[in-house]
Design a protein that fits this description.
Four Helix Bundle (Hemerythrin (Met), subunit A); about 45% helix; about 450 residues; seven-stranded mixed sheet; 15 helices; Gyrase A, domain 2; Rossmann fold
């Protein structure tokens, strides 16, 4: 249940020391609570008479003991011109945790309630300031790891996806209203031309919904990061490849087989695409317990990765473990990499490559082929990515599933119309499509969906 009649508070800056720490207050009692513990240094005026979008210098004091907690600047934002469309006060403290926590305790002592994760943004949605996709974009913006990820989130936050969805929804409402009118007056049959126009409009909407749904396949990588597992038998250069891509010595590299005993995960940026790149233990038949566990984790990483970098030693003939690796890869999206191109090749004529897609030759020692490898990873997973999408993409599974349900309902509606089935059944499918799009935008809300979305937020946002 949503409580919008109480006042909430939280620390809105990261835990730890910093230059500043912010305690945010939102709700009908925000000015009373903040005013009771703020002592202005110069003007002598309280917060009750402060104009919106102003900042005030002074001290925050403990209302019970009158002890000075910190020297602060207080920001004032009056409803409805604030993030939550409620009265909002932000107390800007020095960044030490003691001062920030003591300030928060004083705010709670004056009657505010500690905010739940994402509750400020949830109130912004419930008060009509932002749509549900815009609320989700707030979290995407906070967690963006590359500039392209940030750009996508900003476009979503500006409402471009919401605007597109609302246009589709209004078009469907017009068609549904027309159908309902004919249900109320069954003696007036729909003319053939009108029926064809309805079908044509619905086909356009289905196509646009489908195109939006398909953007998820690539857009989610920019939101979540592309999981890339580097796999191969021992000593083919997996850890060296990780270090070369990161341009620093992250993994230990030795000539001894089985040096890597556990998976190592790091982040990499390729043309704005965030990669979660995982170095794995060499896959081979092993007898030693620790190495066996490392190989098990390697196989888990292989199984769950979005992309596989299968690395082979170009200076040696193919071994049994190489052939076994190819069998394990199966239908995974794989970039086949021949390492050690700086050494005489013994793998080029081997049957290991027959029937396989293009193999890339690289050298982790000289850097040869690394840029080509990065381009191959990006192109393989974002071949249809275009910068002119203008933010009209879906970035999470909830959005995609809603669109898919809408498309299925609209496809059924078109079939029913062509088969001259009763308009009552046709209207049911239209309402299903409208509800699905409404769930996506937040026009149709479900408490469980909202709980799941906002539980992923940090407290204080």
């Amino acid at each position: 249940m949503d409580y919008l009649d109480d006042t909430i508070t939280a620390i809105s800056t990261p835990v730890g020391q910093g230059g500043i720490g912010i305690v945010r207050i939102s709700g009908p009692e925000a000015f009373r609570i903040a005013g009771g513990m703020f002592r202005p240094r110069r003007t002598g005026r309280g917060l009750d008479s402060a104009r919106t979008f102003t900042m005030h210098y002074g001290e925050v004091i403990d209302p019970l003991t009158r002890e000075v907690i910190d020297e602060v600047i207080v920001s004032v934002m009056r409803a409805p011109h604030s993030y939550t469309r409620e009265d909002v006060v932000e107390i800007n403290c020095h960044g030490g945790m003691a001062a920030v926590r003591r300030t928060l305790e004083a705010v709670v002592g004056q009657g505010a309630r500690l905010a739940a994760p994402g509750e400020f943004t949830r109130r912004a949605f419930l008060n009509g300031r932002i749509s549900l996709p815009q609320a989700e974009a707030v979290m995407d913006l906070i967690s963006a790891r590359t500039d392209e990820s940030r750009r996508i989130a900003v476009d979503q936050l500006r409402g471009r996806l919401s605007g597109k969805l609302e246009a589709l929804r209004h078009a469907l409402i017009e068609i549904a209203a027309f159908a309902e009118a004919h249900i109320d007056f069954p003696e007036e049959e729909i003319e053939l031309r009108t029926e064809q126009e309805m079908t044509s409009r619905l086909e356009v909407i289905v196509r646009e919904v489908g195109e939006l749904s398909r953007t998820f396949d690539e857009a989610r990588f920019f939101r979540e990061g592309l999981s890339v597992a580097i796999v191969g038998r021992p000593n083919v250069g997996k850890s060296s490849l990780l270090n070369a891509l990161l341009k620093r010595d992250r993994a230990i590299v030795t000539e001894l087989p089985g040096t890597t005993r556990d998976t190592i995960e790091e982040c990499l940026n390729i043309n704005g695409l965030p990669l979660r790149i995982i170095d794995t233990a060499g896959i081979r038949q092993a007898g030693e317990v620790i190495e066996k566990e490392g190989i098990r984790r390697s196989l888990d990483a292989l199984d769950t990765a979005d992309c596989v970098l299968a690395v082979f030693d170009g200076s040696e003939a193919a071994q049994t473990d190489d052939h076994e690796l190819l069998r394990m890869i199966g239908g995974k999206k794989t970039v086949f990499v021949i390492n050690k191109s700086d050494l005489p090749s013994r793998l080029a004529s081997d049957d290991l490559q027959k029937g396989r897609q293009r193999w890339l030759k690289i050298s982790t020692l000289t850097g040869e082929g690394l840029e080509e490898l990065k381009t191959e990873i990006f192109t393989m997973h974002c071949e249809h990515w275009h910068e002119d999408r203008q933010g009209v993409v879906v970035t999470n599974l909830r959005q995609k599933l809603s669109l898919d349900r809408a498309a299925a309902a609209l496809t059924n509606a078109i079939a029913l119309l062509s088969e001259k089935r009763p308009l009552e059944i046709f209207s049911i499918e239209l309402r299903e499509a409208l509800d699905s799009i409404g769930e996506l935008t937040g026009a149709v809300t479900n408490e469980m969906i909202l709980d799941r979305i906002f539980s992923e937020f940090c407290i204080g946002k």
